[in-house]
Amino acid sequence: MKARATPSNPYRFAARLLIILAFLCAAGACTTAKPAKVATSAKKAPIRPDVPAPDIYNDGTHLSNARWKWVTTVQAHDNKRHLLHLDNYFLELKTDGWFNVESPCFKGDGMYEAEDGRIALILLHSHPSKHCLHPESLTFFLKTLEAGSSYREDAERLSLYDKRGNNTLIFMRQGE
Predict the structure, then answer these.
(1) Better-scored residue on pLDDT, 64 or 149
(2) What is the annotated signal peptide range for this record (predicted)?
(3) Domain containing residue 98: CATH number
(4) Which of 5, 14, 84, 107 qualifies as a cystine partner to 137, CB 3.0-4.6 A?
(5) Is-contact 55 145, C-beta < 8 A?
(6) By the 8 A CB rule, do 65 and 95 touch?
(7) What is the mean pLDDT of the chain?
(8) DSSP SS3 for 112
(9) Which residues pair with 150 in a beta bridge?
C-alpha cells in the first residue's frame, strides 16, 4: 500500500473545528456571562481620562507632574552611556496617571502607575510623523520605555530601568 504524499486539507480541519465549537456552544460551554470578579489588592489605572485616578501616582516624589528629557542610555552589556541621536525626546508624567511622550517625529500618550520605585507604562495613542530622521532611535526609546519596570529619582535625574535589565533610560528634569 502506498502512503499518501499530500498533506491533509486545511479547509477540512477548519470545518471540523467549527463543528466542535458549535457542539460545545450548544452544550452550554460558550456563554456570554462574565466571570465573577476576584478581589485583588492591585490598583488599576483608570480607563478614561475623565475618571479620577487613585492617588498612587505621586508616591511622595516629584516624579509626576514633571517633564523629563531623555539625555542618555546605559546599556548593561558594556556599561557605557549611549544616545543614538541627539533628538529631543520628552516624557511628561501627569498626576492623574496619564503620560505624554514627544519627540521631533512622534507624539503619544498613555497610562502609568508608579509606587515604591516600581513603574508600569502603557502607550495607548501614538501619532508618528512620516518624516522621522532617526526611526531606530524612536523605536528603541518607545520599546525601552514600555519595558520599564522600576525607577529611581535623584534630585533632577530620573533613571528608568527596563524589566530585562538591559537598558536604563536617563532623563533630566525640564523647567516646570
Answers:
(1) 149
(2) 1-29
(3) 2.40.128.270
(4) 84
(5) no
(6) yes
(7) 72
(8) strand
(9) 118, 161
**Is residue 20 situated within a structural domain?**
no
Contact predicate 111/45, CB 8 Å: yes
Please give the C-alpha separations between residue 15 and each of 10, 12, 18, 27, 31, in angstroms, as whole numbers: 9, 5, 5, 18, 21
Q: Is 18 helix (H, G, I), strand (E, B) or coil?
A: helix
Quick one: cell of 130? 512620516
pLDDT at 133: 77
CB 120 within 8 A of CB 112: yes
Where are the extended beta strands (E) located within 9-86?
66-75, 80-82
Q: Cell digits for 18?
A: 467549527
Give the burial class of 80: count Cβ atoms within 10 A of its Cβ; 0-12 exposed, 13-18 middle, 19 or more buried: exposed
For the chain, state the CA radius of gyration.
23
The tally of domains found in the chain comes to 1
Average pLDDT for 139-150: 88
- The region of weakest confidence among 27-31, 42-46, 61-65, 87-91 is 42-46
Domain membership of residue 90 as a residue range: 66-173
Q: What is the mean pLDDT of residues 107-123?
A: 90
10: its cell numbers: 486545511
Q: What is the residue whose three cell numbers read 528603541?
A: 140
* pTM for this model (two decimals): 0.60
